[in-house]
């Protein structure tokens, strides 16, 4: 067959940004964003994004420049997911729960050129910028206040602009850069939340596009959904559903915090049909059940970060939430496995249905394959639900790689697979179930906490000679860190409250242990490594404080 060349008519680089002009053309008069009394249509959103992209170019932003944002789920955060790549730049959404040192590490590593800051996070941004300056690194050239409904009373320590003024000053008719290569970077997301070297995960336009369409198909999202933003947009770009709502002409209902009253009010006022969240948010909604009647219509919930328990699934589904469980990680552009439901399972008893629903499931459509392998031989483990191996993924929605971290890239990509570091089994029906985390990651309220990094902070305390951290079950957050400590010879005693307070001063507060146990020695195996299996067994007999706040 003769060679047929690519032509402008039959080859256009894939990009999720392309969903926005289509939304403006097809759904132009429909509501795009709701935030309190504020309403935009898709035509408005498209124009505002073009204006913002033009304004960024006027500030000197160029291809592959990083634009960082520190903000909750507000319209500006939504708009930047389109406007920044429209300017050929790369969007970096920063976890608002981090401390100043962690934010500073991200700004330094990404070499962000512009920083957008919500009014509520100006103090955090100022502290982070000071850390960057003290380290002798270049701070972002421009800082922009992004909260669009309240004037700021605090100024940042660098050149400041106001978001709405920036948007209004941009020319929507300006010529914007065209995307030539779908492998170009679209966003940069960080996995690390501590003062250690962060790992920046780079997404391609192609990968984000494919993951977006995959999510819509896997979750069965039709046209005109009403989506409530209970998932932070900084988490894997809202699991790519930021772009997905434009693809479906949906309504984005934005709320700043996941208070039960606000969530139930939004569901009632706007007819919410879909939302995503970690299981901890479902617990928040159940705790506030007195504020809600049974939902007038079902709300479809995609949950991940930790397996929902059978009891939790039963309770939330009685309220009217229809839960789908997924598994993913930042490096996979969000969800990589989904527990696709089979109609015959509806006939099973509740506990059996919940057990099946709590499994991580099968690969999403953007992946070529998902497997569980022996990490020595790379051979697939038997599909018996018992043989364990490492979960490996392969497909176009996997990250481009870690920014400026060749050692981590060499470790993550092996034999044509991306190695997740998570241990699992494959059941006879092909559904994967996570059994353990080889990286010892603790997932608390949907946030990943690396136990090793918490241990490093603990060892900085003068009264601590040795430390090990494992996950402890928590009725509200799913998991929380529990620290086992050996006192130094110089210390008369180790005070639990003092150690916890020390941790909260030196890391993001949600990462600090909620329980500290002093032991004579840490259990170790024949290789001299800490035996965390024994520590996890010991955790089962411990009792947590009754308060649920991590602050």
From TrEMBL:
GO MF assignments: 4-coumarate-CoA ligase activity; trans-cinnamate-CoA ligase activity
Q: What's its catalytic activity?
A: (E)-4-coumarate + ATP + H(+) = (E)-4-coumaroyl-AMP + diphosphate; (E)-4-coumaroyl-AMP + CoA = (E)-4-coumaroyl-CoA + AMP + H(+); (E)-4-coumarate + ATP + CoA = (E)-4-coumaroyl-CoA + AMP + diphosphate
What Gene3D superfamilies does the record point to? Answer: 3.30.300.30, N-terminal domain of ligase-like (3.40.50.12780)
Query: Which CDD domains does this chain map to?
Result: ttLC_FACS_AEE21_like
For activity, the cofactor(s) needed are:
Mg(2+)
Residues spanning the signal sequence: none
Q: Which SUPFAM superfamilies match?
A: Acetyl-CoA synthetase-like
Query: Where does the AMP-dependent synthetase/ligase domain start and stop, copy by copy?
Result: 22-403
Pfam families (alphabetical): AMP-binding, AMP-binding_C
Checking InterPro entries in the record gives: AMP-bd_C, AMP-bd_C_sf, AMP-binding_CS, AMP-dep_synth/lig_dom, ANL_N_sf
Question: Where does the AMP-binding enzyme C-terminal domain start and stop, copy by copy?
Answer: 453-529
Q: Which UniProt keywords apply?
A: Ligase, Magnesium
Q: Name one GO biological process term.
A: phenylpropanoid metabolic process
Q: What is its EC number?
A: 6.2.1.12
As for family, the record states:
Belongs to the ATP-dependent AMP-binding enzyme family.
This protein is called 4-coumarate--CoA ligase
Q: Which organism is it from?
A: Triticum aestivum
This chain is encoded by the gene named LOC123125478
């Amino acid at each position: 067959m003769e060679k047929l060349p690519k032509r402008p008519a039959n080859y256009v680089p894939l990009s999720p940004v392309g969903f926005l002009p289509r939304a403006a053309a097809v759904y132009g008069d429909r509501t795009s964003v709701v935030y309190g009394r504020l309403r935009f249509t898709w035509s408005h959103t498209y124009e505002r994004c073009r204006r913002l992209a033009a304004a960024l170019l006027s500030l000197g932003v160029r291809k592959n420049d990083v634009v960082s944002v520190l903000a909750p789920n507000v319209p500006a955060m939504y708009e930047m997911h389109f406007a920044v790549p429209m300017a050929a730049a790369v969007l970096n959404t920063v976890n608002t729960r981090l401390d100043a040192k962690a934010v500073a590490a991200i700004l330094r590593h990404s070499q962000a050129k512009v920083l957008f800051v919500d009014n509520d996070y100006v103090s955090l941004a100022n502290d982070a910028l000071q850390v960057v300056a003290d380290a002798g690194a270049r701070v972002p050239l421009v800082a922009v206040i992004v909260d669009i409904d309240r004037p700021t009373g605090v100024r940042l320590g660098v050149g400041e602009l106001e978001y709405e003024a920036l948007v209004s000053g941009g020319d929507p008719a300006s010529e914007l850069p065209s995307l030539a290569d779908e492998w170009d970077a679209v966003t940069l997301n960080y996995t690390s939340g501590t003062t250690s070297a962060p790992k920046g995960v780079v997404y391609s336009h192609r990968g984000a596009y494919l993951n977006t369409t995959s999510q819509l198909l896997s979750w069965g999202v039709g046209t005109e959904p009403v989506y409530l933003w209970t998932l932070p947009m900084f988490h894997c770009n809202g699991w790519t559903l930021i772009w997905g709502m434009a693809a479906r002409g949906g309504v984005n209902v934005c709320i700043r915090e996941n208070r039960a009253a606000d969530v139930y009010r939004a569901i009632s006022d706007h007819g919410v049909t879909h939302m995503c969240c970690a299981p901890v948010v479902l617990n928040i909604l159940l705790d506030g059940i007195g504020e809600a009647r049974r939902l007038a219509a079902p709300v479809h919930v995609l949950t991940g970060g930790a397996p929902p328990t059978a009891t939790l699934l039963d309770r939330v589904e009685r309220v009217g939430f229809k839960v789908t469980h997924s598994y993913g990680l930042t490096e996979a552009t969000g969800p990589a496995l989904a527990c696709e439901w089979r109609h015959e399972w509806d006939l099973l008893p509740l506990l059996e249905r919940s057990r099946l629903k709590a499994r991580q499931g099968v690969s999403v459509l953007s992946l070529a394959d998902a497997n569980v392998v022996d990490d020595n031989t790379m051979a697939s483990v038997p599909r018996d639900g018992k043989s364990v191996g490492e979960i490996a993924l392969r497909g176009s929605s996997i990250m481009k790689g870690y920014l400026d971290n060749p050692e981590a890239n060499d470790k993550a990509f092996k034999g044509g697979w991306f190695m997740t570091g998570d241990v699992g089994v494959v059941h006879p029906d092909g559904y994967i179930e996570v059994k353990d985390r080889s990286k010892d990651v603790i997932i608390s309220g949907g946030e990943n906490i690396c136990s090793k990094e918490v241990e490093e902070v603990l060892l900085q305390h003068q009264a601590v000679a040795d430390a090990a951290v494992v996950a402890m079950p928590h009725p509200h957050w799913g998991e929380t860190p529990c620290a086992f400590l050996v006192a130094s010879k110089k210390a008369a005693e180790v005070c639990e409250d003092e150690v916890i307070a020390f941790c909260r001063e030196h890391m993001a507060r949600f990462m600090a242990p909620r329980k500290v146990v002093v032991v004579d020695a840490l259990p170790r195996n024949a290789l001299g490594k800490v035996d965390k299996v024994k520590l996890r067994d010991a955790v089962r007999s411990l009792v947590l404080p009754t308060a649920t706040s991590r602050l």
